[in-house]
Design goal:
Strand 3, helix 1 and strand 4 form a beta-alpha-beta unit. Helix 2 packs parallel to helix 3. The chain has 3 helices and 8 strands. It is globular, with a radius of gyration of 16 Å. Helices cover 16% and strands 18% of the residues. It is an alpha/beta fold. 36% of the residues are buried. The protein has an 8-stranded parallel sheet, with helices on both faces.
Length: 200
């Protein structure tokens, strides 16, 4: 069980660039994704890409979560499985192997007992012709000229967590013009501007 019930879930979309994460460290339990371990020590790190698990271990991250399929490669190390999906369905995006680090990070927060989840860097769509990720063009990431990733699976997977955990408040922070997906229109999900996070 978490000691801090407010959880900051950190995706790597470019909208989080202005946020000084160090100023938020003491206010939240933090859950991050992939290469954030290069810049910030999170309490929990989700890496569903096996290469990112290796990098996280090099950074001496303490609590790493990855796919059940990859655990055999990290026996004896501080790597554990992401949570099992709390539902079953036949759609491709409902297959655990097709869940991304971001949605798994949100599910992890819910499973660990968060009362409120504050999401940053969950941009989904790119506003340009190239991929939207702070770490693009670096080791284990696509080139800066790579086309944007289709966010359809992420949208549906996050929506499933919001639906299954109605007692948790999810606050998604982004730029003023960012539009929250229609699939996320639940009573327990609200959008705020990224600047609002600094006044918590």
């Amino acid at each position: 069980m978490m000691s801090k019930k407010q959880t900051l879930i950190i995706g790597n979309g470019q909208s989080r660039s202005p946020v000084d994460l160090k100023l938020l460290k003491d206010k939240f339990t933090t859950i991050g994704c992939n290469a954030i371990c290069r810049d910030f020590d999170v309490d929990h790190l989700v890496c569903v890409d096996r290469r990112m698990v290796k990098e996280a271990l090099e950074h001496k991250v303490q609590k790493i979560y990855t796919r059940q399929d990859w655990l055999k490669y990290f026996k004896g190390l501080d790597v554990q499985s992401v949570p099992e999906l709390p539902y079953k369905d036949s759609n491709r995006w409902d297959n655990p192997f097709h869940w991304g680090s971001g949605p798994y990070a949100v599910l992890l927060a819910a499973e660990l007992g968060a009362e409120s989840c504050h999401l940053i860097g969950f941009d989904l769509q790119s506003t340009t012709t190239t991929v939207n990720n702070i770490y693009k063009g670096t080791q284990n990431y696509v080139d800066i000229t790579h086309r944007p990733v289709d966010p359809k699976y992420w949208v549906k997977q996050n929506a499933k967590v919001y639906e299954l955990f109605p007692d948790i408040q999810f606050i998604v922070y982004n730029d003023k013009d960012w539009i929250m997906p229609a699939e996320w229109q639940f009573d327990n999900v609200i959008k705020k501007e990224i600047k609002d996070l600094t006044v918590l």
